[in-house]
Amino acid sequence: MTREEIVMVLFDLFRRAGYDAVSIADISAATGLGKSSLYHHFPGGKPDMAGAVADFASGLMRVKVFDMLTGDGALPQKLRDMAAFVSEMYGGGGAPCLISSMMISPTAGPKAIDTVRSIMTEWINALGQALRAQGLPADEAKQRATAALVEIQGGLVVARATGDITIFETALKSAIARLHV
């Protein structure tokens, strides 16, 4: 199994169970690799793994969301594409968020936490840039972008807590509507 394949397994494990709940034994069982092989790929142990997962998530968001939002194209299509990716990534509201999973764990290590934090900042900035390109003043663009992310992430948390994924779907639609200029 390559390092990239291991990171994909880790991404799913950390996202679904939470970083702290996943043990090295769980990772070994999911990957089929022994501890020594895991430490070969990630000499710093679980914090090193968390950093690799956060880097993967950041790269994925950059390609699928940030670059798309800041690139050419009409805002309505960009927002539809973002909503489709976010809905897919969160399983329509049924799959947990890596960001919340990693942020609640101080043992994930500063690199992972900083990277996850930067994902949210970069997402707000990319949305704000897309809105500014439509003529919105910078302050209003940032406010709308931030409110939309709060709505999306909050909707996901409430949907997961209640088991009602329609809450996420409604929050996502409302957030996208908030972003139209």
Provide tags for this entry.
181 residues, mainly alpha, Tetracycline Repressor, domain 2
Instruction: Quickly count the helices.
Output: 9
How does the major sheet shape up? none
Query: Shape from CA axes?
Result: elongated
Stretches with pLDDT under 50, minimum 5 residues: none
Chain-averaged pLDDT: 92
- Beta content comes to under 5%
Class by alpha and beta content: mainly alpha
Reported by name, the CATH topology is Tetracycline Repressor, domain 2
CATH class: Mainly Alpha
Give the CATH H-level superfamily.
Tetracycline Repressor, domain 2
Number of domains: 1
Indicate the percent of residues in helices: over 70%
* Gyration radius, in Å: 17 Å
SSE order, one letter for each helix or strand: HHHHHHHHH
Q: How far is the first residue's CA from the last residue's CA? A: 47 Å
Task: Say how many strands there are.
Answer: 0
Any idea what the CATH architecture is? Orthogonal Bundle
Describe what this molecule looks like in 3D.
This protein is mainly alpha-helical. The chain has one domain: Tetracycline Repressor, domain 2 (Orthogonal Bundle), CATH 1.10.357.10. The protein is 76% helix and 0% strand. It has nine helices and no strands. The protein has helices spanning 3-17, 24-31, 35-41, 46-70, 75-89, 98-103, 110-132, 138-162, 166-179. The longest helix is centred in the N-terminal third of the chain and has 25 residues, at 46-70. It starts with a helix and ends with a helix.
